[in-house]
Amino acid sequence: VCCRSYIVPVCGHDVWRISQSQRLAPEQFVVAVAQPEPRMDGFRLAADGPTHGLMLDKQGRLTVNQSCVFLVHLAGDNDRCGVYPDRPVVCQAYPMVLAPRGVTLREKALCPPNAWPVSELGKRSWRGAVRRVTMQFDLYAEVVARWNARVDAAPPEHHFTLGEFLSYLINVYERVAPLDAELGDDALARIALTWGYVPDPGQSALRLSDLIRSEERRVGKECRS
């Protein structure tokens, strides 16, 4: 049901991972939606333009109650996620959310009654999944902020395209991927579990900023040529 009844927001890491694993151009599975109010993940294509967020596309018309673009319809109504190993971080955490004392079940979750026993709430995997959402969107916010700064610095008459923004994302996260590989899955899981409690001022964060700045310069040169 959740694969038909929600708008699924995605961050840059989601876009990169699905694109690389499924060998799809981002334009084939994400759409940009204007935000009623600017948010940290809101990117602009013109200095005086609105902010946009990215979401997974839908099958057919772009309405809330349409099936996700990746929902696979099987016989006997046994639908399955077609990108389950690479699904967005918000999907990985569903239906759990952060609570003052850990993790709790989302209100009005679209799951069968009693689908999630109380014992599930204490599992480390759920805490990691929920924290990973915050971590990835925090990192994405910095990537977006640097993009928006470049949009602001461009000539007023210049309007960027969604394709340029998506290309920027793919290139930034492609260059960040070796840092993740260097850290390893166990270290990344530990970072996710502590994200929001103990900021990590380590070398990886500094190198992330360096990579983003480098990608900004590369894209800027391409736009001027």
Write the layout of secondary structure elements.
Blueprint: H1 2-5, H2 12-22, E1 30-34, E2 52-56, E3 71-72, E4 80-81, H3 89-93, E5 96-99, E6 102-105, H4 124-153, H5 162-183, H6 185-194, H7 203-224
Antiparallel strand pairs: 1-2, 3-4, 5-6
Helix pairs in contact: 2-5, 4-6, 4-7, 5-7
Describe the structure.
This protein is mainly alpha-helical. Helices cover 46% and strands 10% of the residues. It has helices at 2-5, 12-22, 89-93, 124-153, 162-183, 185-194, 203-224, and strands spanning 30-34, 52-56, 71-72, 80-81, 96-99, 102-105. The chain has a two-stranded antiparallel sheet with strand order 1-2. Helix 5 (162-183) packs antiparallel against helix 7 (203-224).
In helices, the fraction of residues equals 40-55%
Sheet with most strands: 2 strands, antiparallel
Radius of gyration: 18 Å
- Output the strand order for the largest sheet: 1-2
Overall average residue pLDDT: 86
Low confidence ranges: 202-207
| Apparent shape | globular
Q: Beta-sheet strand percentage?
A: 5-15%
